[in-house]
Amino acid sequence: MTTQVASEPRRRRKGKVPATILVSAFLLAVIIVSAVAAPFVAPHDPLAQDLLNRSLLPPAFAGGSWAYPLGTDALGRDLLSRIIYGGRVSLLVGLTATMIAGFLGLVIGVLAGYFGGWLDIVFMRVADVQQAFPFILLAIVVMAVWGPGLVNLIIVLGVTGWVIFARVIRSLVLVIKDQEYVQAAIALGTSTRRILWKHVLPGVTSTLLVLATFAFVQFILAEAALSFLGLGVPPPAPTWGGILSEGRVYMVMAWWITALPGVAILLTVLTVNLIGDWVRDRLDPRLRH
């Protein structure tokens, strides 16, 4: 009886969500909501220019005007509004590219792991060839050929990001298909479609979710890097990487143009990584304490 009573608080402590995860979830929710509701949240038009009256205004906390809380850029555009709208692009690219890469990796990983043979050899050799090139370098080359643009950027990142999904899921499928319950289903004449749907896919779903969180971060950073190099979403559309690129010329006299979009990228990447680590720990029984 004493042991049972003493163990109940311990179980509650194990199930408690850490404060860092709560703060991360709150910050990520603010970023997502502000990006989705950008037309209603942004105080100004992100493309509106005023070179004469409000060029390079500092943030309000650095002596500027509260009408432009985060200051303005060299063209007099409100930096807060541009960061909010830039979050729309980053989150859209990260989400859609993750969905494309996750779907391709899931299909290829399941097919290669379950059926094996020549199918496995072909898919894994293609993966080896693609991994021979650094991810960002491959994206730069393709975008330089195709030209900048939102759709092109999403396609390039999604199509080049499937390898890690496919390799991890393939290794899981190789383990799952040798389990006794799967072998029993095969012996009973269960169709391949039903085995994949009822036994294989549920076994890889949690890992797929964890991989998606880290791929999401990778694609946001890739979008920012490509936009910084002028190979992402072309101006005048605001993007975090594009704002950084525009502000690098004014780093000495207007540090906020580069620092504040960098903070937005940092917060987004940090919060998603922390949440992804926590989800991985919760879903993987080997990492529970």
CATH superfamily: MetI-like
User: Major β-sheet, in short?
Assistant: none
The CATH class is identified as Mainly Alpha
Order of helices and strands: HHHHHHHHHHHH
Q: Which structural class best describes the helix and strand composition?
A: mainly alpha
Kindly report how far apart the N and C termini lie: 23 Å
Structure overview:
The structure is a single chain. With 289 residues, the chain is mainly α. It has a single domain, classed as MetI-like fold, CATH 1.10.3720. The protein has twelve helices and no strands. Helix 4 packs antiparallel against helix 10 (192-228) and helix 6 (135-146) packs antiparallel against helix 7 (150-160). Residues 1-13 have low confidence and may be disordered.
TL;DR?
The chain is mainly alpha-helical and 289 residues long. The protein has helices spanning 2-15, 19-36, 38-41, 79-115, 117-131, 135-146, 150-160, 163-176, 180-187, 192-228, 240-247, 256-283. The chain has a single domain (66-284), classed as Orthogonal Bundle (MetI-like fold), CATH 1.10.3720.
Secondary-structure blueprint:
Blueprint: H1 2-15, H2 19-36, H3 38-41, H4 79-115, H5 117-131, H6 135-146, H7 150-160, H8 163-176, H9 180-187, H10 192-228, H11 240-247, H12 256-283
Helix pairs in contact: 2-4, 2-12, 4-5, 4-7, 4-8, 4-10, 6-7, 8-10, 9-10, 10-11, 10-12, 11-12
